[in-house]
Amino acid sequence: MKTTDDAEHFGYRVLMKALFGGEPPTWRNRAACADADPDMFHTAGRTAAAKAMCASCPVLAECRDNQLSWEANGPARFRDNAFGVVGGLSGAERRRIHYPAKNVKDVA
Ligand code: SF4
Question: Residue 27: CA atoms inside 13 Å, Cβ hemisphere, count?
Answer without folding.
Answer: 11
